[in-house]
Amino acid sequence: MSRGPFRGLPFVDAMTPAVLVLAGPVGRGEVAGLCEDVRGLVGPGRVVVCDVGGLGPAGLGAVDLLARLQLAARRAGGRIRLRGPDPGLRALLDLVGLAFEMEGEPEQREPPLGVEEAVEPGDPAL
Questions:
Q1: What is d(CA 43, CA 37) in angstroms, rounded to the nearest whole number?
Q2: Per-residue DSSP letters for the chain?
Q3: Are the C-beta atoms of residues 85 and 102 closer than 8 Å to each other?
Q4: Mean pLDDT (whole number) for 62-70
Q5: 47-54 and 18-23 as β-strands: parallel, antiparallel, unpaired?
Q6: Given pLDDT bands bounded at 50, 70 and 90, which one contains residue 17?
Q7: Across the strands, what pairs with 18?
Q8: How far apart are CA 57 and CA 55, in angstroms?
């Protein structure tokens, strides 16, 4: 049994963030294009996942690129989340004081799953 051509808009999951794969060392000439890509993918309150697993060795060029991508995303009303950073890149980002949300880690605003706040005896019920 066959169906005719699909009519209407395809199903798009609004909760699934867009993914931008950064592979190999990125030259200075490519940074502006990647920032434009982020601005096109992000929107108010949206997240773009930047897969940095193939970015190469951690260095100040990678830090500069990620800082510019985060700035472009924030100016568009969104943010980026890093996927697959190597430990050297994470350490370098911490060293220069840039905080990025990492995929697979709980957000700072939310406690990890399974963690409940303690209740002291005598606390009023809510």
A1: 12
A2: -------SPPP--TTSPEEEEEESPPPHHHHHHHHHHHHHH--TT-EEEEEEEES-S--HHHHHHHHHHHHHHHHTT-EEEEES--HHHHHHHHHHT---EETTS--TTSPPTT------TTPPP-
A3: yes
A4: 94
A5: parallel
A6: confident
A7: 48
A8: 7
What tens digit of pLDDT does each residue of 97-123 get?
A: 999 999 876 555 555 566 566 667 776
The number of residues making up the chain comes to: 126
Q: What is the pTM of this model?
A: 0.70
Q: Which amino acid is it at 44? A: P
Report pLDDT for 8.
47
Helix 28-41 with 60-75: angle, nearest 10 deg: 30
How far is residue 105's CA from residue 111's CA, in Å, rounded to a whole number? 10
